[in-house]
Amino acid sequence: MVAFYRDIQDFNSKERLKKIVTQYYDNFFNREGGSYYKDLYCWPTDMVELDKKIGLIVPSYNKNFFFKKGYATSDLIKGEEKQGKWFASPKFRNKQFSLRLDESELGNWLSYFQICVNIARGVKRLHSAGLAHSDLSYKNVLVDPISKSAAIIDIDGLVVPGLFPPDVIGTADFIAPEVLATKHLNIKDSNRKLPNRLTDLHALAVLIYMYLLYRHPLKGGKIHDIDPEKDDLLAMGEKALFIEHPTDNSNKPKLNQINPKELPWADTSKLSYKITGPYLKSLFERAFIDGLHNPMLRPTADEWEQALLKTTDLMQTCLNSSCEQKWYVFDNTNNPRCPFCGTAHRGTLPVLDLYYQFRPAIWKPENHRLMVYNNQYLFQWHVNRNIIRNEKLTEADKMPVGYFTFHNNKWVLVNQKLSSLKDLTEDKEVPPGTMVEITDGKKLLLSKEDGGRVILITMANK
Description:
Blueprint: E1 2-4, H1 11-21, H2 23-29, H3 34-38, E2 46-50, E3 53-57, H4 103-106, H5 109-128, E4 141-144, E5 149-152, H6 177-181, H7 197-213, H8 228-236, H9 278-290, H10 301-312, E6 315-317, E7 327-329, E8 349-359, E9 362-371, E10 376-378, H11 380-383, E11 402-407, E12 410-415, E13 422-423, E14 428-429, E15 435-437, E16 443-445, E17 454-460
Antiparallel strand pairs: 1-3, 2-3, 4-5, 6-7, 8-9, 8-17, 10-11, 11-12, 12-15, 13-14, 13-16, 16-17
Helix pairs in contact: 1-2, 5-7, 5-10, 7-9, 9-10
């Protein structure tokens, strides 16, 4: 389609748009791996001019980004775009709400981890090119929990620091505190903060928090001013405070002020940010405590991507078939249970800690753990630390090399493709096509190649 601007664009705006559809487009897509990013953005491909008005040729969205059913009780939004806002609010998944989304549109908790991985990768690529989105929000991200995909839109507002300033300061709820706190200053004032890479990182953290916990990290119970508009400006700006701050609970949501349709997600006592696991817990604290008013301390998009991926290695399936979320993050206890429905895990649970060779015969822990569930696959990025789980993975690297299964009342690893798998505890080779039992305290060498890992097994829930 061709989208025309209502207003006449000045010379700088034309030059910025021209670079977006030529130089930046080529740098992103006309290179090795460029096809991967075409699915992560809705990037304009050309610029046209008609009667002094500028238009952009924009590709249509993939069909999975349109609602097939929409609401569970109405066709009102059937066929509309799946803007991220539909999936970041608890009421649209609450069965007490008449306009809840159909279950076939929602996916499960694991779906949103992959969605967040895709968004983080999209932001990471923009930042590595020296660009900033400037208006990252759930209105400018399309998501589909069923295919676990996401696409960043409104690319025409890209900021090039030092060359093309931002056109907008962002979307409410996602604007960084320093931008709101200084928006009263003249745009040429050196103290005025405008959208940039660091403000993108605030918006990215808010998006990830909302997609995993379905609430806003700064909208709590604290009142700063009796004027609602001033109160909102302070709450999101200079007085911003994490609703789950570990030492200051003054902004903790008050249950008597919460809409029942937003429960249980709005109740931070029941579903704390800590249920997202240790890697994301640390990043949320850096984003909303350390980096909330100190932008340089905010986690990068790459850090979010890696933490999300490591967290998916901690996921367990809930044994309750009626559990709406289906998955949860292992809480590092001996008796794990689903935080959403309270169902306890039954049976032993293998915990695999990954080690790397620091120097000959000296192995160190990687702060990376793999939880095992029945018929779970083992991949090359688990086996070898030199294979990074990112958008550059080859098709061969995406193929499983083994799988875990509960066989004859025992946990076993079935070796499909590993040429040098060895049971170090028993000092026995495990050739492809055979299996090795997973027991408490056992050590396995996954690969003898450079970067190959050793795993140490602990059995939880014994």
